[in-house]
């Protein structure tokens, strides 16, 4: 089988097809005459200096711009004229003073070879080209520091444009899927490395470092998001990024949620493991329950299924599991506890979200004002479609902060055995997260790092057996 990178060799990032997708979605909202008189214009991110300093801030390419070009050169712009199906990439004008420091930029001819566009020009031609489109609606997402000098030609904030861009981005084509498979593959290896390196991981920072080291070595210089590296009770903080606590055996549990990025496409994977290789009873109880939540929800994943329903099913599996463990009292039915939302603060986030260029990708239609605490934070509120990529990431947490209200609420506490609950706080939490591609009949799991607790235990122990001297560790 070809590796992800070989499989796209000889092909360009399909920018023209993406632009056509956007216009097709636009046409579902406006008349074809209006569509014919429309153009789409997006400015990419540019280099910016820190105040009082000659160093530049890190640049993260504008995702809408990248979708229409595949180009990550700062200071570029793209214009698509719908009726001519003409896609033009504008590169920044050459700054001859900068060539000494930065080397020669890509030439127009080389850029024409590299990118799937009809023409490549310098940005100095842009104003005249926009002026020539008099009578056209030149749509853009917003006015910002990178496009404000073209403001007089642009129509910003058009709802239909956002709709068209987001609907297009939500469904991945074969090329995007190959990039995401590669990001997932890099991430698998990073997680394996982290699980295997306990002898040199005596602080959460070391877990963070181990992951990034292996990502960069595989060519992924950027993370999809800040890695979340937790141990013990900090595993209950969903987006914990302090990553600086000591790891000692008393804590027992590690949770790492991290994903490498490949050519602007994300991966997003969470794994948990026991610090000394042996699962404590309570840690394994919760681990197996979260694994069951993931396995049970995976059975329901296929085009047409509503993500709300699958998410709520995960809550029911959790409630049943808590009854079996004695955390919830046995005298009540799963349905009653579920309906009283007692599980909300133990599994406070959504079961998963769309994944693409953004980690929480566009098109999910979340409703953060939903009064239902079980659905409020669900980032995907629509039926599944073929070639969506999403995460399946159930979690169970014991967060003193989140559960403070529950502990004071008689109507909820009547379902909870406090004595049993008290045995679980030290774990913090468990989350298992894989990246799934929706297929015609179900899904393909892009994540292949094991989530089997016995396998994980073996990997951790094999790492521990190597001892500190078994690692190249200069610090
Ligand atoms: Mn996620």
Commentary on this structure:
The protein is α+β, with helices and mostly antiparallel strands. It folds into 2 domains: 4-170, Creatine Amidinohydrolase, Chain A, domain 1 (3-Layer(aba) Sandwich), CATH 3.40.350; 174-470, Creatine Amidinohydrolase, CATH 3.90.230.10. The chain has helices at 4-7, 15-27, 32-36, 63-67, 96-102, 108-114, 126-132, 159-170, 174-196, 204-217, 281-298, 307-325, 334-339, 400-408, 410-413, 418-421, 453-466, and strands at residues 38-43, 77-81, 86-91, 119-122, 137-140, 154-156, 228-231, 253-258, 269-274, 389-392, 395-397, 429-431, 434-438, 443-445. The strands form 4 sheets. Strands 4-3-2-1-5-6 form a 6-stranded mixed beta sheet. Residues 268, 353, 391, 393, 433 line the site of manganese (II) ion (MN).
Strand order within the widest beta sheet? 4-3-2-1-5-6
State the helix count.
Answer: 17
Q: How many strands?
A: 14
Bound molecules: manganese (II) ion
- Summarize model confidence as the mean pLDDT: 96
By secondary-structure content and strand pairing, the structural class works out as alpha+beta
Helix content: 25-40%
Main beta sheet: strand number and arrangement?
6 strands, mixed
- Level-2 CATH architecture of the largest domain: Alpha-Beta Complex
Give the radius of gyration.
25 Å
Instruction: Name the CATH superfamily classification of the largest domain.
Output: Creatinase/methionine aminopeptidase superfamily
Beta-strand percent range: 5-15%
According to CATH, the fold-level topology of the largest domain is Creatine Amidinohydrolase
Distance between the termini: 39 Å
Instruction: List the domain count as a whole number.
Output: 2
Write down the CATH class of the largest domain.
Alpha Beta
Low-confidence segments, given as residue ranges, are none
Q: What does the overall shape look like?
A: globular
């Amino acid at each position: 089988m070809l590796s992800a990178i070989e499989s796209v060799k000889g092909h360009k990032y399909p920018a023209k097809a993406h632009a056509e997708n956007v216009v097709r979605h636009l046409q579902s909202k406006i008349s074809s005459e209006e569509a014919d008189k429309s153009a789409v214009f997006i400015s990419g991110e540019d280099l910016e200096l820190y105040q009082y300093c000659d160093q530049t801030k890190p640049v993260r390419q504008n995702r809408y711009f990248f979708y229409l070009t595949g180009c990550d050169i700062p200071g570029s712009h793209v214009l698509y004229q719908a009726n001519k199906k003409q896609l033009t990439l504008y590169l920044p004008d050459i700054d001859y003073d900068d060539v000494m420091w930065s080397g020669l930029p890509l030439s127009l001819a080389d850029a024409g070879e590299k990118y799937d566009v009809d023409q490549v020009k310098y940005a100095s031609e842009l104003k005249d080209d926009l002026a020539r489109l008099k009578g056209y609606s030149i749509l853009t997402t917003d006015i910002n520091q990178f496009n404000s000098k073209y403001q007089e030609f642009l129509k910003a904030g058009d709802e239909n444009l956002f709709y068209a861009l987001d609907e297009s981005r939500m469904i991945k084509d074969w090329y995007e899927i190959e990039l995401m498979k590669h990001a997932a593959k890099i991430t698998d290896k990073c997680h394996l490395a982290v699980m295997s390196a306990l002898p040199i991981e005596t602080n959460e920072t070391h877990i963070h470092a181990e992951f990034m080291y292996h990502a960069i070595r595989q060519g992924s210089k950027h993370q999809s998001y800040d890695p979340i590296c937790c141990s013990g009770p900090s595993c209950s903080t969903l987006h914990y990024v302090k990553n600086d606590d000591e790891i000692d055996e008393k804590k027992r549990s590690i949770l790492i949620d991290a994903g490498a990025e490949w050519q602007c496409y994300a991966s997003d994977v969470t794994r948990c493991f026991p610090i000394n290789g042996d699962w404590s009873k309570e840690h394994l109880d919760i681990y197996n329950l979260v694994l069951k939540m993931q396995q049970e929800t995976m059975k329901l994943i296929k085009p047409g299924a509503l993500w709300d329903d699958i998410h709520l099913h995960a809550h029911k599996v959790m409630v049943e599991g808590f009854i079996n463990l004695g955390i919830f009292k046995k005298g009540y039915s799963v349905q009653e506890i579920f309906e009283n939302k007692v599980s909300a603060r133990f599994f406070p986030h959504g079961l998963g979200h769309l994944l693409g260029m953004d980690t929480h990708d566009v098109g999910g239609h979340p409703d953060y004002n939903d009064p239902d605490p079980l659905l409020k934070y669900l980032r995907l509120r629509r039926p599944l479609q073929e070639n969506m990529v999403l995460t399946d990431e159930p979690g169970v947490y014991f967060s003193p902060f989140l559960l403070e209200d529950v502990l004071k609420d008689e109507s909820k506490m009547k379902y909870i055995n406090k004595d049993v609950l008290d045995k679980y706080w030290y774990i913090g939490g468990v989350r298992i997260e894989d990246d799934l591609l929706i297929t015609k009949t179900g899904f393909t799991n892009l994540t292949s790092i094991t989530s089997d607790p016995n396998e994980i235990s073996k990997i951790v122990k094999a790492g521990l057996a190597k001892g500190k001297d078994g690692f190249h560790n200069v610090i």
